[in-house]
Amino acid sequence: MDDAQRVAAKIALGVLAADGFLSRRPGPD
Question: DSSP state, 27?
């Protein structure tokens, strides 16, 4: 796995983690 793939995977994991974290928080409505 080269650096570009490693960075892309890290970004994807970060996005998924952030999405899951935000979905567990109470929304504005």
Answer: P
Say how far apart CA 20 and CA 10 lie, in whole Å: 15
CA of 10: how far to CAs of 1, 3, 20, 25, 27, in Å?
12, 10, 15, 23, 26
21: which residues sit within 8 A by CB, 6+ positions away? none
Q: Write out pLDDT tens, residues 1-29.
A: 699 999 999 999 999 988 888 777 776 66
What's the whole-model pTM score? 0.57
